[in-house]
Amino acid sequence: MKMDDTIFLFLCTLLVWLMTPGLSLFYGGLVQSRNVLNTVMQSMAAMIIVTFIWITVGFSLSFGTGNQVIGDFEFIGLQHVGFVINEQLSPHIPLALFMLFQMMFCTIAISILSGSIAERMKFIPFIIFILVWVVLIYSPVAHWVWGGGWIQQLDALDYAGGTVVHITSGVSGLILAIMLGKNKDTEKIQPHNLLITLIGGILVWIGWYGFNTGSAYAFNNIALISFVNTVIAASGGAFSWLVIEYIMTRKLSLLGLLSGVLAGLVAITPAAGYVNYVNAYIISMIGGVVCYIVINVIKEKYKYNDTLDAFGIHGAGGVVGAVLTGVFQSKEVNPDIINGFIYNGYLHTVLIQLSAVVVVVIYTIVLTWIIGKVLQKYTPLAITKEENERGLDQLVHGEKAYFYGELNKLNKRY
Question: Which residue spans traverse the membrane (predicted)?
Answer without folding.
Answer: 6-31, 43-63, 93-114, 126-147, 159-181, 193-211, 217-242, 254-274, 280-298, 310-330, 350-371
